[in-house]
Amino acid sequence: NTTLENLDLAENPFSQHCIKRLRMAMSSKQSPCLICLGFEGPSRDLSEMGIKKRSVTAIKRALAAGADVDWQNPKESMHTALAKAASRAFLEGVKILLDNGASTTKVNKAGNTALILAVSCYPSVDTDLDDVLKCVQLLLEWGSDPHFENANGHSAIDLAATSPALIQQAL
């Protein structure tokens, strides 16, 4: 697991902002969640800084401060950080989150797991097919159920079958 002691605290504005936010959360005896490093007030949404910006450092800092790795953001359709990372094929983020205990079974409002979101992200977002496949493989290795169906009755297998690029890579 990541701790404050093993982080590289680089001297740059982003790092300084993250440190300030973590100290504020810790001094107020709040349990900072994984999604706590946004720039707008006491946001709990790391996806702005850690996931959207693909910042491994931001994720590690939040985890080191005691973040709740499975917090579900009500402003983001109840996505967890793992779901957001998987939906962007952010492989390093997915690895860190899984290594720190993120659940592969949490679902968002639509009933999608991180695996379903990973499979369905290509080519709809700016992702590399190889990274998508690696994220899918990693989620499967960590126990994601490819047969789990979302609220619309679709599984990761169903969605993969509709993607020619994914089918071609699998063959």
Give a nutshell description of this structure.
This protein has 171 residues and is mainly alpha-helical.
Instruction: Give the fraction of residues assigned to helices.
Output: 40-55%
Q: How many strand units?
A: 0
Average per-residue pLDDT, rounded, comes to 75
Extract low-pLDDT stretches.
1-7, 9-14, 31-48
Helix-strand pattern: HHHHHHHH
Could you give the distance between the termini? Answer: 36 Å
User: What is the structural class?
Assistant: mainly alpha
Shape: globular
How can the largest sheet be summarized?
none
Task: State the helix count.
Answer: 8
Residues in β-strands, percent = under 5%
**Estimated radius of gyration:** 16 Å
Output the keywords.
mainly alpha, disordered N terminus, 171 residues, 8 helices
What does this structure look like?
The protein is mainly α. It is 43% helix and 0% strand. The protein is globular, with a radius of gyration of 16 Å. It starts with 12 loop residues before the first helix and ends with a helix. Residues 1-7, 9-14 and 31-48 have low confidence and may be disordered.
